[in-house]
Amino acid sequence: MAVGRPGQMAGMTARARVAVLALLWPVLGAHAEEVGTPDAGAQPAAHSEQELQRTDAGDWVTWDAPMSADAGTSQPAFVPPALLADSPAPYPPELVPERVAGVVKLEVLVDDAGEVETATLVEGLHPLLDRAALHAAPSLRFTPATLEGQPVAVRLFFEYRFEAPVPVVSEGPASLAPVTLKGLVRAKGNRRPLVGATLVSEALPDAPVQTDVEGRFEARWPSGVHAVRIFAPGHKPAVFREGLKGNEALEVVYGLEPLIINPYETVVRGDRERTEVSRVTLHDAELREVPGTMGDPFRVVMLLPGVGSMLSGVAYPVVRGSQPAATGYFLDGIRVPILFHLFLGPAVIHPDFIDAIDFYPGSPPPRYGRLMGGAIDGRLSRPRDDRVHGSAYADLINAGFFIETPFKDTGTNVSLAGRYSYTPWLIALAANQLQAPPPPGRENPKVVLDFWDYQGRVEQKVGDGTLRLFAFGSSDTFGTRAQDPQGDTALQSIAFHRVDLRHRHPVGPGELEVGGTWGFDRFGVVSRSPPNDATEIHIDQGHWSARLGYTAPLSSSVTLRTGADLEHKRAIVKLLQQENSPVEELEVAPVALGTSMGAWAELVWQPNEKWAVVPGLRVDNYHLSPSIDRRALEPRLTVRHKMTESLTLKGGAGLFHQPPTTLISLPVVDVGSLLLGLQQGVQLSAGAEWKAWRGLEVGVDVYLNPMLRTIELTPFSDEGLTEGEDPATPPGDSPPGLRRAAQLGDGGGIPNRGDIDFPDFRSRGLAYGVELLLRHPLGDNWFGWLSYSLQRSTRRTRFYRYDAEGHRVGEAEADLPFAFDQTHILNLVLSYKFANNVTLGGVVHFNTGRPEYGTLGTQTHRPGQDGAGRPSWVKSDRDRVDRLPPFLRFDVRLSKSWVYDTFSLEAYLDMLNVTLRRETLGFEYEGGNGFPLRKDAVGLPIALPILGVKGRY
Fold first, then answer.
1. Least confident piece of the model among 23-37, 316-330, 557-571
2. Which of 89, 167, 335, 658 sits most deeply, having the most CB atoms within 10 A of its CB?
């Protein structure tokens, strides 16, 4: 027998398991008669890590404890748990005609407080009986086991012995009493039928009734007044008084209040099998109740290891030192072009459409192609086919709704969701009020901050497969709009729409998926200055794509995953110009026509339960009309080795390619920039996963990502130097290449591809680091994690040299930290749901500063002297800049839930940066020319207080 000390619960070794099987006899028994009531008389035996043995006197001692001459022990080592409270396992009514009887054997983990933490099926009997036993076991209560006087967690065997109820032998038509009470028992709030609920009349305590798999029951009790007491695991008992008549059946619906309100009871898929190196999967409250995220699942990624930020509150992640646009965003494999509203806002997908999020910080599987960084895949929740579900909410940012309804007769499910931002209008109204009063007869421009999104899904069962139509879209507009004929307008907008049709069906030994997507993206910039100056640019991009995937086992140890994808994009630019003329000129021209094709495959080889080896390969072809073709071959390899039941080692390597990227994904750029070539990088990583004490998960990852070729189309990649640049160029001028690239064309219209003199954006880089994640998944009414990243990301950078007076004297090239490099990033996330359904959570975020390159401010200056010998600020060389100050942020979320008969209600307060701390973005260097030198920090205390209410039906 084996037992664990506090904090050391782990899987048994082979030798320990043999010992347990030999010594755990008799196992703790629970003999179920008609309702499966456990027998408190049987004594359990426990096991875990330390092996035990019995003395001749019957005491338990550790295996290596010293024995006295009379076979006694020097001290009592172990006192096993004893059953305090049983938990009946009801006999399923639908099995009564089959009269199935026997024993269901479980292994339960009893914590040091005597409560059942987990229950695992060891030997089943019938699926319905197995489920009844597993459903009942968590409500068992024991006296805590003790080891050397200290409470410990133990594992023990537990049996539910089921016996089929003896049918009543009818002696005549009148021997069966009539049904006097029937109905449904369901949970309050979500209206979920409660299976196995027990109804007992105080007048007839020996004639209990159980609900069936649909939560329904029938009672044949005599007429009169009955106090009906109802019990169900996980719910508060309730008593109802009913007056029964012998000649009619009273039909009722009873609602039981859950002990803990869990609004996220959705039909979910299990976690995908872990065959990759790095993946973090989040579910339920881990997605929607993290403080500072506005309840948005995708914003939670910002708090995971390996993720830096451009700016606190801006939710575009900098993953392992790559550009934000190098990380791909997906919805069930559908690429999403823009993920967040207005940078600071929520994601473009309603949270109730998301079941789980898989985050791959590095070495994503080959099905995620054309990426240099990580991948974030939001898995859509499966439709629920039991009844209508819905939710609606409103807060200080936006209002939204979600509804889904099944049509059982046809096997169809329809889901709709949408959100609209009305309150950014309020923020804009406040900003408008802060503007200086306009001149007489004029009106100030109006600040615009608008967004909306929509989602719709129709899923149809087709034979053994499913057909799904999913449509979603988003729109954002921000800037200022003139309110009178003389006012200026400056607006930017971005919108997209996607319609995806997918079919999944079993084919042979595996499953085939076929899908196609239509999309439309629009990016617009409007600038108007009356009377005769205007420029409008609208970039429209059409999108067609198709994908094919197949997964099948080739043998008991080998599984094949393979697929292909095709993506076609066509971009058109509409340019309207008016320059000192009453005539507006409109020009329309196609600027990019591109097609990408890819195929991938991976073999999952698991020769035994300890090893998983996954070789993979992806092949891509990029075509830009008329004559540009780029090809990429990407081998991948992942290895996982389970050292023990709780410890797994892992490693992986792969080659990755991606078209040139801007800071965030924009229409046309990823297609039109193919003429510059492909980016190329290698990702190498290794690590360990440890399932530690009481459900705690520990993960450590070390990575090294050589970026062999980068083409990052950003103004801060370097200081704009090109070959042949004159180092004496005045500080205010841009290099010739950069100037021409910024122009629309020599004639002011849409340029031809050959007319643009592109700067040389080619570079190379290196990213490396260590990531730590200590995580307690959702359980025991709380969840949380601690993530820490120690990282460095560099780029080969060209920059100017300055003399003591700030004049350019030359240029240099060196490997410098990336513009958004943050050496240390720490996140602590905790959330706990109290017994009164109050949830309190907090987040602590810390990051060291980025290099002061002037990315979002001014480059580092140092005190010096001007030509007259007076104190002056002198610009520092880029390889000698300072780091910006570190930043510490606190986020808080407080919510309270109420449950009613048919719906639940939640009120919440969520605030990012509750202490209103200001993140320093740069410095203003004032003074000089005879005035004192002064250095002032520049930054805003970005805080998002969200007060809202949400109802769920």
1. 23-37
2. 89
Give CA torsion, residues 130, 131, 134, 135, to 10 deg.
Answer: -150
How far apart are the C-alpha atoms of 419 and 23, rounded to whole Å?
61
User: d(Cα 785, Cα 776) in Å, to the nearest integer?
Assistant: 6
Q: Are the C-beta atoms of 895 and 909 separated by less than 8 Å? A: yes
pTM value surpassing 0.85: no
pLDDT by residue (tens digit) across 412-436? 999 999 998 876 566 666 666 666 7
Helix, strand and coil in the chain, % to nearest 5: 10, 55, 40
- What whole-number distance in Å separates Cα of residue 838 and Cα of residue 897? 7
- How many angstroms separate the CA atoms of 111 and 106, rounded? 16
Taking the C-alpha atoms of residue 84 and residue 826, their distance in angstroms, rounded to an integer, is 43
Of the candidates 374, 385, 364, the residue with the CA atom closest to the CA atom of residue 272: 364
Query: Which residues lie closer than 8 Å to 219 by C-beta, 6 or more apart?
Result: 179, 180, 181, 182, 199, 201, 207, 209
Within 8 A by CB and 6+ apart from 704, the residues are 684, 685, 766, 767, 768
CB atoms within 10 A of CB 408: 10
Burial class of residue 601 in the structure, from the number of CB atoms within 10 Å of its CB (0-12 exposed, 13-18 middle, 19+ buried): middle
Query: What is the DSSP-derived secondary structure letter of residue 178?
Result: P
In 3D space, the residue among 254, 135, 128 whose CA is nearest the CA of residue 191 turns out to be: 254
CB-CB contact of 44 with 25 (8 Å): no
Tokens encoding 689: 């996963």
Residue type, 630: R
According to DSSP, the residues that pair with 640 across neighbouring strands are: 612, 650
Amino acid 726 reads D
Q: How far apart are CA 351 and CA 381, in angstroms?
A: 10
Q: Distance between terminal CA atoms of the chain?
A: 49
pLDDT digits (tens, 9 = 90+) for 516-555: 999 999 999 999 888 888 888 988 999 999 999 999 999 9
Q: How far apart are CA 614 and CA 611, in angstroms?
A: 10
Q: Is 337 left (phi over 0), alpha (psi -120 to 50) or beta?
A: alpha
Question: In Å, how far are 338, 374, 420, 448, 930 from 453, measured between CA atoms?
Answer: 12, 25, 7, 17, 55
State the residue for tokens 């709709």: 416
